[in-house]
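Task 17 of the worksheet. Students: predict the tertiary structure of the chain below and write it out as structure tokens. Keep your answer in the requested format; marks are given for formatting as well as content.
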Amino acid sequence: MHPQVKLLTFSTLESAGDIEVKLRRKAKKAENDKNRKSRYFVPAVKLFGGRLIDYVEESGHGVPRIVTSCVRTINLHGFYHQGIFRVPGVQTDLQMLQQAYERGEDPLADSNNKLTFDINSIAGLLKMYLRKLEEKLIPDAVFESVNDASTIDDETLRVEKLKIIMKNIPDSVLIVMRYLFHFLNQ
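Model answer:
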């Protein structure tokens, strides 16, 4: 016998039954993965009702996934929808979406082609998340100053005043604010 030829024995081959079991497991896993919504790391910090600074720090995302997913979905499906932030969403959808995000799922991850939830519910979820933050996006300590600065007629002075005020806001909050302002300015 040639030295490079290996003999196949029954011990080196898997039985047909073993292969069938492995194929079934693989098919079942693929089906489960297809049906499962996108999951991500869930920080110990509360998403709804927590502090944005703490959540961003612990999650490692500059902008919380709930914000990016809602904005992306609204851009794809609701940009020309009349009164998107005025019309309340379906309460059961809001609860389902909130619970999914709190479990670490992204129920909007697969919404590129087909929208599973009412667009007003998605906009309502974004509003609810921002409303429930422990500290508002524009902190109370600077809110009056921002309002006062916005009434300055001279644009150069107004911008300078706002720059000074914004220096008192943590960078992680500023990043989220910029993200949302960019979205709302489209």
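Marker's comment: Confidence is low (pLDDT under 50) at residues 5-14. The first helix runs from residue 16 to 35.
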